[in-house]
Amino acid sequence: MTWSAQPLHIQYTWAYVFILQSSLHDTYLLKD
Fold first, then answer.
1. How do residues 1-32 score in pLDDT, each as one tens digit?
2. Which region holds residue 21: left if phi is over 0, alpha if psi is between -120 and 50, else beta?
């Protein structure tokens, strides 16, 4: 499965999910 083979909206969805998880992870680290 190649990244470039994914439909553009799929790429944006995964990028959004990745950023969202990263921001949530940072928030939990700051709270800790």
1. 566 677 888 889 999 999 999 888 877 777 65
2. alpha
